[in-house]
Amino acid sequence: MKPLTLYGVPFSLWTGRVRSYLIKSGIDYREVPHASQHFYQIVLPKAGGRRGIPTIEFADGSVIRDGVAIVDHFEQLNGHSYSPQTPLQRIISLLLQVIGSEGLNRPCMHYRFNFGEEHGQFLPFHFSMIYEGANREQMALERMLEIRQNVLPAWGVVPETYELIEDLHLDMLKKLNTHFSSYPYFLGGKPCIGDFGMICPLYGHLGRDPKPLALMHKYAVRLYRWVERMNRRDPDIGEFVDKSENYLGNDFIPESLVDVLKHFSVDFVPETRSACECINTWLSENADIPAGTQVPRGVGMATFEVKGLKISAEAQPFRFYLLKRLQDEFDSLLDDSKLSIRKLLRDCDMEEVLDFKLSRHIGRANNLEVWL
Questions:
Q1: Contact 254, 179 (CB under 8 A)
Q2: Which regions in the chain score pLDDT beneath 50?
Q3: Which of 69, 94, 112 minimizes the C-alpha distance to 204?
Q4: Rounded to whole angstroms, how far apart are CA atoms 253 and 344?
Q5: Quick check: 264 and 99 in contact, CB under 8 A?
Q6: For residue 287, which of 23, 156, 190, 220 sits 20 to 30 Å off, Cα-Cα?
Q7: What are φ and ψ of residue 81, in 5° steps?
Q8: 258, 265 in Cβ contact below 8 A?
Q9: pLDDT for res 103
Q10: SS3 19
Q11: What is the pLDDT at residue 116?
Q12: What pLDDT was estimated at residue 255?
């Protein structure tokens, strides 16, 4: 049977999630750039007209756009084999998915676009992969310039924040390195949904681009081994004494992972709080938007403070589409489990994530996120 086609490119943040999932699941696939007439004429209309990657096309011609939806599809088919079944681990896995998908945009963009001399031809070459024709190199340079001028400021990557971004990033490397010195994956001997979320930024941008890759090699070789591990079919856990391919027993959350989450909370919590307020204000001002309308990538600028520094970044509803999964899971649990989870999240400085909710829910229709 013809393998499914993954439309993506090696340096894509979100393609990393799907590629890793397909590899770990032993699913036959081929990966090709989305710069082709077949993609534009056949695949794109089925993907809701949104030229986003990753997108997959099955042998029968059906299409799924977006990495979260793709993983959802296969998790339903394989009995949710990468979704922990115990309450604390399940919540932490879902939280890591949100952080990996939406919470590390600033270091990803800073290290990709603000170190051109150290990157050389690396970025122009890779950006040229997303275009066709004789002028694709020039188109790549123009796209890179557009991102520097428009996307970086929209995501809070401005000269005033560079030092903070770099300080937080180095601290993250060291804390993740400590965790992966003891555990092959976030929750033990096999990846969870949270691992696939975190591989998004930690491979495509921060574990592959020359500058952040050099930092990972220097400060976090155990983290780098996790990045390698996430792109290999076998468990690849030979350096660990415990070679069992299971999640940690007794719903255990290691202290090293609590430290990682406390680090992420420093900017994830204030940004999520401010973005929630911003989007809810926008929703109240646009209450007549019909159900089924596509959700925009951003709906205004959220301003928040991290370590005494004010940051403005685009408020992105997709963060709350993912966060609601965690909240729904929490709401479905028994009271004893809820108390344990609240205590754990409190220890991680993350308890507030249970309460950041949009006034209007987000669903999917025709391969697009839509307002319900």
A1: yes
A2: none
A3: 112
A4: 9
A5: yes
A6: 156
A7: -70, -20
A8: no
A9: 96
A10: helix
A11: 83
A12: 98
Strands of the sheet containing 29-32, edge to edge, are: 29-32, 4-7, 55-57, 63-65
Give the closest residue to 230 by CA, choosing from 91, 100, 127, 123.
100
Note the pLDDT of residue 129.
86
Residue 319 dihedral angles phi and psi, to the nearest 5°:
-55, -40
What's the rounded Cα separation, in Å, for the pair 257 and 311? 26
Residue type, 21: Y
pLDDT of 131: 86
Structure tokens at 284: 């109240």
Residue type, position 186, single letter: F
User: pLDDT tens digits, residue range 132-165?
Assistant: 888 888 988 899 899 999 999 999 999 999 999 9
Range 245-266 burial, b when 16+ CB lie within 10 A, else e: eebbeebebbebbbbbbebbbb
Position 239 scores a pLDDT of 95
Structural tokens at position 196: 């696939």
Torsion angles phi and psi, residue 237, rounded to 5: -120, 30
The DSSP H or E segment spanning 30 is strand 29-32
Task: Please state, in angstroms and rounded to a whole number, the distance separating the CA atoms of residues 272 and 249.
Answer: 31
